[in-house]
Each structure stands twice: as C-alpha cells, then as structure tokens.
Amino acid sequence: MTVGTDLQLTSAEVIADPYPYFADARRLAPVQWHDELGMWLTFTHEAANTVLRTRTLGRVWKPRWPDEPMPAFALIHVNSLLENEPPAHTRLRRLVAGAFARGHVERLRPRVAELADGLADRVADGGADGSPVDLIGLFAEPLPVRVIAELLGVPQVDWHLLRPWSNAIVKMYEYAVSDHQRRAAESASAAFVGYLRDLVADRRRNAGKDLISSLIAETDADGARLTEDELITTCTLLLNAGHEATVNVVGNGLTALLTHPDQLVAVREDPALVTTAVEEFVRYDSPLQLFERTALADTLVGDVVVAEGQKVAALLGAANRDPAMFADPDRFDVARVDNPHIGFGAGIHFCVGAPLARVELQTSLRTLLSRFPRLALHAQPERRPEFVIRGVRSLTVTI
To answer: pTM of the entire structure?
Structure first.
C-alpha cells in the first residue's frame, strides 16, 4: 500500500529541526509519496542507500523552467560529472579522478593549515577585547573558498568573486525559488563561465601546479578528452559542492559541539578524536539533506516500485539518523566509530572532493580548538532559511 506524506520541507519548523519530523515519518514507512513535490521520499538509511547506488536510478537533468532559457546555468549542469550517468559519467569521473590523483590533496594540506591559521588570526583580533565574533563570516565561509581557489589556481586578487557566484547558483537547488533568484543564478553562472574560460586559456599557455592545469594535461594524456565546457563545469562543481558542503559542516558541527559541553571537553582532552568528530559532524546534521534521482526503469526501493520516469529523493539527513543503522542516532557523539553515514553520497556519485573536504574539516577543528581554549557560544545560531542545503548563517561566539 502506498503511504503518502505531506511533510512541508520548506516550512520554518522543518528547516529549524527536521529530524523529529523524519523520525515520525520513518515509523510509518521507509518510502513515501509526496504529492506536492511529485516524487518519492526515503526516510531510512537502507532506502536512501538504494537510491544512491542503484543504476536504474540516475541523474537526469532537465531545466525546471523550460520557457525561461538559462543558457549559462544549463551549461554548468548538462556537462557535469554529477548530472551524467555511464558511459559519459565513467569518462568524466576517470579524467577528473586522474587529475586529482596528481597529488593535489597532499599539496594543499600544509596550505590549508596556513589559511586556517591566518583566518584564526582574524577571529582573535575581532574577539581580543571580549567582543563576540561570527565564526561563519570570519572563518568558516572564507576558508573553503580560499582552498578551492588554491586548488584551481585562481589568483588571490579574484578570490572575492567566488563566494557570491557560488551562493547565487546553489539557491537554485531549493524547492522555493523566486524570479530574482533565478536571474541572479543565471547572471552568476554566466560570469563564472566567462571567468573560467579566460583562466583555462591562460593555463593552456602557462601550465602551473593547479588542478586546472592537471585537468588540461589529463585531457591530453591518452586520447580521452575533456571538452572545454566539461572542464569549466568541473571547476564550478568543485566550487559549489566543495565550498557549500564544507562551510555548512563546520557551521552545523560547531553548533552541535558548542551546545554539547561534554563532547567539547572530550575532543579537547583527546585531540585524536578530531577525526571521528568530523565524521559525526557530517552525520549528525548533514549539510546536504536531499539528493534526487529519476527512475530509468521500474525500480524497487524499500517496499515500493518507483515507476520509470518518476523521481525519488534520498533524504540524507533522515538516513543519517536511522536507528536501524546508528545506535542512539539522536545523540551527538564525537567518539562514534561505527558511523557509515552517507553525507558524502554513495555509489558512482560519491563526492570526488571528499578527501580534500576531510582535510579542511579536520584542520578547521584542530585550529579552532588549539587557538581558542575558551571558545563558547554567545547567541543562538542563525539558521539559513533553506532545506536542501542546510547550514547556519551566523555562529556568534566568544573566545
């Protein structure tokens, strides 16, 4: 029997804390039909994992507003690693992974530490007189932008351009999008694409140690080639996915840590817990809450058949709080070792940038704990008003 849900994902109550609503729904059925969204939603880890791994459930990108052309926004999606299935995905993934394998994560590891320490100096300056400071604006937001800029080889003078572009583009992944936001996303996409075309042209003339240079070299390595549009799309994906995920893991995770004093003490007393704490950050309050797939053929998910052409969404936050997979799932535990969260995805679309994200997250936590032994929450965090990409807009602390 089909079980339906009318869970309002965009309501203020769900955005504030979706997890009790997920738990209530999970008790009814693992997969439920949402009539307003016109898709199935999963509420268990098993069902979400099926959605992410089953090859008859694929990414099928279509314009949401076909009567309103958005050519630049479309360009950075139709060529995306994230929006393609085999065989196109296989070729793209191999080339991008090959470029990453040229040592970029290890190359950036010491630089990430330098950047984090420099931003911690800004936090220290701002709070030196006891004034509260915003860790999102001063630390969590600028760090991943700078890391991605270093990865791609974006000149420092242009770093300030990246965050506004990313912020405008990712607004389009929500379910409530205004006309103004659509125009802003298209404008940002066009500006970013134009900027990257110039940067790629420069790297073709003057190769460096950056990822763009590696992607160009990988293109020419064995006859398999990335087109320029594919290369540009890869760069936008790395910025949008890499930056948005990292800043929101830091914001959500620090919110959890600072509101659980016993866990803050535990990770301070045992720095080896940083690694497991970061994984718990991702599980406990997932930065990406929903990931859509389309059925390429009738597919069994849980106890329902997703018919060919229908959409199904893995609710990652619900999956990561499933008591069938996690002991005491609503408990925040920085020492949790049995933690098969799917915050970075699963299957062939598993986040290609996850190793770099983990370096950033672990470095961020180590830096903040070592630099600010009296770090404490000053005010209730201000949460972003979106559901799909979950984060806090400000996190005011004293140091």
So the answer is: 0.92
